[in-house]
Design a protein that fits this description.
The protein is mainly α. The chain contains 8 helices and 4 strands; from the N terminus they run βαααβαααααββ.
Length: 257
């Protein structure tokens, strides 16, 4: 007989549709971070124009969502590319100092680069939320991010053309400065500092994507520290054997003779 029972998922949903991953690379230069602001000038020049286009296209997407309830896929792909480019430059620069590998000049995902970002494309977005997400609903997050990244907590300012070399206040800037001094003196990047910095960067990027209308999922008030974004967690009542990675088989019922 066929089993008509409803399918029970074996994992819980991912914590958030914006995923930010990064790995701290070993053997970082002791003094390169002192001149990265100079090395990043070509990227900053390009990012100025990319973020101008980002803002214009986001306005177009706002009207499209209000009318159709959908984010135009082409605009979504471009804006996601700008986020990826900016995150790679930020990770190389003064939002993390997590790698000495120079960021590539591309909007595409670069799987082997130590900083990656992805956003699930939403099939449908609320026409009503688009009116209040960026300026009203995100205010509590802006206040928190003001402590993390300084200023008034303007997310899009931090993750725009000025983000990689921002010299403003905030806890991220302070911790990255401590990490730079540790590199200069001892040649090591304290892992605890890296994990905390990545947690705050991840929080800011989630809010930035929400403010840019790329998701209706409200950002969690949670500091997910470390380089890896939280993955789906196996359900305790999963019918699969998670230790071996193979489903457990039910023994056959005895057939009366």
């Amino acid at each position: 007989m066929s089993d008509d029972r409803p399918h029970i998922p074996t994992t819980t949903p991912s914590s958030y549709p914006v995923r930010v991953d990064a790995r701290l690379e070993p053997g970082l230069s002791r003094g390169l971070w002192l001149v990265k602001w100079l090395l990043l000038i070509p990227h900053l020049f390009v990012l100025v124009f990319l973020w101008i286009a980002f803002v214009v296209l986001t306005v177009i997407a706002w009207f499209a969502i209000l009318i159709t309830g959908r984010y135009p896929p082409g605009i979504f792909g471009f804006n996601l590319g700008v986020f990826r480019w900016t995150w790679r430059v930020s990770f190389y620069g003064y939002s993390a100092l997590g790698t000495d590998r120079y960021p590539p000049f591309t909007l595409a995902d670069v799987p082997d680069y130590p900083a990656r970002l992805d956003v699930d494309y939403p099939e449908h977005l609320s026409r009503g939320l688009v009116l209040v997400k960026s300026w009203l609903l995100a205010i509590p997050h802006y206040l928190i991010l003001g402590f993390f990244i300084g200023g008034a907590g303007t997310v899009m300012w931090r993750y725009s053309e000025s983000a990689p070399v921002s010299a403003g206040g905030g806890l991220v800037a302070l911790l990255v400065l401590f990490a730079g001094v540790a590199l200069l003196v001892r040649g090591i990047y304290p892992r605890g500092l890296f994990d905390a910095v990545l947690g705050m960067d991840r929080w800011a990027i989630r809010v930035a994507a929400y403010a840019a209308l790329m998701t209706d999922a409200y950002p969690p008030f949670r500091l997910d520290q470390g380089g890896s974004d939280p993955q789906p967690v196996p359900r305790p009542d999963s019918p699969s054997d998670t230790t071996s990675g193979t489903p457990t088989e039910t023994p056959p019922m005895p057939v009366p003779g």
